[in-house]
Amino acid sequence: MAVPALANEPLLRVEDLRVEFPTRRGRLTAVDGVSFEIAPGEVLGVVGESGAGKSLTGAAIIGLLEPPGKITGGQIVLEGQRIDNLPYHEMRQIRGRRIGAIFQDPLTSLNPLYTIGRQLTETIRTHLPLGETAARERALALLRAVGIPAAEQRIDQYPHQFSGGMRQRVVIALALAAEPRLIIADEPTTALDVSIQAQIIALLKRLCREHGTAVMLVTHDMGVIAETADRVAVMYAGRIVEIGPVREVVRHARHPYTVGLMGSIPLVGRDVARLAQIDGAMPRLNAIPLGCAFNPRCQKAFDICRTQRPDLRRVGPVAVACHLFDMPPADAGRPP
Amino acid sequence: MASGSSERALARAWDSDIAYSFRSSPLTMAAAAFTALYLLGAMLAPWIAPQDPFDLKQLDLLNAFLPPVWEVEGKAGFLLGADDQGRDVLSTILYGSRVSLLVGFASVVLAMLLGIGLGLISGYAGGAVDAFIMRVADVQLSFPAILIALLIDGVTRGLISAQRHEELAVFVLVISIGLSFWVQYARTVRGLVLVEKNKEYVLAARVIGLPPALIMLRHVLPNVLGPVLVIATINLGVAIITEATLSFLGVGVPSTQPSLGTLIRIGNDYLFSGEWWITIFPGAALALLVLAVNLLGDWLRDALNPKLH
Amino acid sequence: MIAFVLRRLLQAVAVMLVVSLISFALFNFVGDPINNMVGQETTLDERAELRRQLGLEDPIPLRFARFIGNALQGNLGVSYRMAEPVGRLILSRLPATLELSLAAAVFALLVGVPMGVYCGLYPRAPLARLFQAVSLVGVSLPTFLIGILLILIFAVHLNILPSFGRGEAVALGWWTTGLLTAAGLKALILPAITLGLFQMTLIMRLVRSEMLEVLRTDYIKFARARGLSNRAVHFSHALRNTLVPVITITGLQLGAIIAFAVITETVFQWPGMGLLFIQSVQFADVPVMASYLILIALLFVIINLVVDLLYYAVDPRLRLDRPGKAA
Fold first, then answer.
1. Domain check: are C236 and C185 in the same one?
2. Which of A104, B51, B108, C212 is the most exposed place for a label (fewest CB within 10 A)?
3. What is the rounded average pLDDT of the residues A231-236?
């Protein structure tokens, strides 16, 4: 089942994770048997349409699933310690200290009633044994590191006095405040201006490389993944359909869904006619079809796809969940 | 065929979200049942009440201050006891509820019509008219409704003779309460009109020469139905309380046609001499009625507000 | 900041003018002021002379200006019923009403806010459900009925608290207070609870729904993701953000409390302005009604002004005249 471990010990291991929502018409499975690993310092991109379960996977790892959603199966292991079943106060000490988070909308991620300095120092002092003055020094250093000009003045300003891009820099500073080993960045640039997106992504990438921080980068933007991630996991209807090194997945997409996704990013030098769209829409969670969840939209679907759910299996350097690759391993490595 | 499709329609209605939230809330069902029974009891009072409390021939002062039937001195036929004039408390409650409900419903309808009308005008006309109506609404909203109702009542007393006032008391009450509750409707309707006003079909209507106001009315009214219904249900409880309060304060309906509030005021005089039932039973009836109506209002608000799901 | 205060002041003056106009209209067009001053035997000529003396023949704008001038000097006419200057009447009743209203507001806040916070944090807890149920009953029970029930229980049955009046009041200059004697404080308990109960449930429900709303926001989620303690998340982040609407509503409710004192004062025969007002409505005593209206409007306007300034202090977003906006 699980993707074989990389050479070094993984920082985070997610095994067969299930997230379900009880509703009045039965339980909806939003994340269905997801497994992956993240190595120290590695950037894992998680891509998929909205509703594919990628944000929920991130929320589950950090222990902040919104009720009534809850983890109903599998486990999450951080540096050898199982964290999905920790009591609230122990998980709280992991959040911010060992796993940081960045959310989609910087405009709403900061408390409007407090200065950014106060929000930074309270985070620092929650996790590190520093006094007020030392915490403020650290906060200033962080603001400079994320590229806030005139940090000495701006530290005492309120969030509404910052632009969107600047606020997301502050959010990144907050996520890095206690030097976590892993950052879960959920659509960190979606709400920003296109011109600022690239800056923020570059900043995030540079800071994480400098601090050796691993990143789980959740996005629906394949372009961002292609530029930033080391490996990529493609999610569809609550499951991982393909996972592997980013170059491999981008250049030689195997799963028909990934092929479709790749078709939707304009790349320089690519024939415009190939900018294809995938017909139809992802099924709602209460109407996931039998067999492969993608089969109603898949042009290559055949009989077995409609009856039997494909497992994730190794195909060359990647792992794919598709019956097209059920054939003897000898042929499976080459894309058709 | 026809019966089959209507059965299906019924089944669909039964399965709809609103029906579901109704079925899954026993409290709401209980409140609905209680309200229905209460309305029925009040409407049928002349036929089901043990006694006509306004028919002096049926009254006997010997029955005055009879305690409820389960107390030692209780007497059959006076289930909840009798008041100072020997009237059966249960009967006075049933008859009194007619006045309370009449005033409640009538003032809500008045407020609703006034509010919807002014809201439509305000939203559609815009400019100075809109500004004027909304300023008036603002000023009025910053004063409690009961104060405004009291003031209107006081003014009418100054304008017409005491005897005329007694005759017109119910009418004056309805106007006083109705005039003090129109603002919410007006604001809601105005907001919806402003949303609809710039939609393309309104512009299109203007282009082809149809009166846009008429077209909009046809689109706005169905949209306001839900919110207006919620406001009206919640207001019904408040209106009933307001009527009872005014009557309790002695500026509502006269004691010749007592409402629940009047009954409580009359009974209040005997609280210290131990005749608690004269005031407590009408009070309980009032509280239960308002509680049931409020429960329905709360449920309706939640059921019609998809944001909460 | 100054512009903000000035604009608010201007609005306040406008509201006061409108209310004065209504009062003025009441004074002059409801009933005949002359009829209320003279006896049956006065001749028509004498009446006309009196009208001229009182300036009732002058143009209406002039009369209105004179009315405002008089009101500003505290001259609010003479009560038809009690033949006493209204200004003095109201001033003698004002302390009783203000003390009662303040006690009720403090009760409503001190009980309502903690209950609301608890219900917002643990909406599914049994205690929270109980609070919710109690609050619904509280909203459904008319104020006067609550008063009657409290009297029945604590005055009639248990006989531990007085059921009417102010107890023992002490005069401090023109202000009389019941807060300095044991009897005065005891007499305050039932009326204050009666008057405050409705506002308490209102504040509780408001704080609860605001807490629920704020707890769903991104910055609370982010505060949790930063690993802040529950106490920091709930109190310094969530509660503070609910304060703006709570301050607004509580402030406005203070006005409502003063107005609703009419009912409570009637139930408990509390010698305040409300009782005076009710009696004036029953007897169509126009000068008292009109003056009460002006006074209540003035209180409302002052409260609104204070509320505006308060949330200006709480919410930094309103302080726009700072440098460095949107860098």
1. yes
2. C212
3. 92
**What ranges do the domains of chain A cover?**
12-98+180-332
Tell me if C24 is assigned to some domain: yes
Range(s) of the domain holding residue B205: 72-308
Q: Pick from C44, C72, C100: which residue ends a domain? A: C72
CB-facing half-sphere around the CA of C144: CA atoms within 13 A: 30
Which CATH number fits the domain that encloses residue C180? 1.10.3720.10
pLDDT tens profile A26-36: 788 889 889 99
Segment A284-330, tens digit of pLDDT:
877 788 888 888 888 888 888 888 888 888 888 889 988 888 765 54
The model carries a pTM of 0.75
- Residue B10 falls inside a structural domain: no
Are B157 and C281 inside 8 Å of each other by CB?
yes
- Copy the structure tokens of residue A26: 């039965």
Chain C stretch 203-222, residues whose beta carbon is closer than 8 A to a beta carbon of chain A: 217-219, 221-222
**For C229, which residue in chain A has the nearest alpha carbon?**
A92
Domain interval for residue C61:
2-72
Which residue is listed with tokens 């049928």?
B44
Pick the residue with more confidence: C65 or C322? C65
CA distance B135 to C90: 29
What fold, for A12-98+180-332?
A: Rossmann fold (3.40.50)
To the nearest whole Å, the CA of C314 is away from the closest chain A CA by 8
Residue C239: its H or E element:
none
C252 touching B, CB under 8 A? yes
CATH of the domain at B91: 1.10.3720.10
Does the distance separating the beta carbons of C18 and B139 come in below 8 Å? Answer: yes
Rounded to the nearest angstrom, the minimum Cα separation between A223 and chain C is 26
Unique residue bearing structure tokens 């807890």? C125
CA distance C282 to chain B (A): 6
User: How many domains in chain C?
Assistant: 2
Reported as a single tens digit per residue, the pLDDT across A325-336 is 876 554 444 444
CA distances for C209 relative to A162, C110, C122, C219, angstroms: 29, 18, 12, 17
- Indicate the number of domains in chain B: 1
Q: Which of C219, C311, C325 to mutate to test the interface with A (most CBs of A within 10 A)?
A: C219
DSSP C157-188: IS--S--SS--S-EEETTEEESTTSHHHHHHH
C302 at the B interface (CB within 8 A)? no
Determine the Cα–Cα distance for residues C327 and C310; give it in Å rounded to an integer.
28
Q: Which chains touch A (3 or more CB pairs under 8 A)?
A: C
CB hemisphere CA count around A185 (13 angstroms)? 38
In-domain check, residue B58: no
Contact C227 A127 (CB under 8 A): yes
| A-contacting residues in C 35-94 (Cβ below 8 Å) | none
Q: Is the CB of C136 inside 8 Å of chain B's CB atoms?
A: yes
Same domain, yes or no: C230 and C313: yes
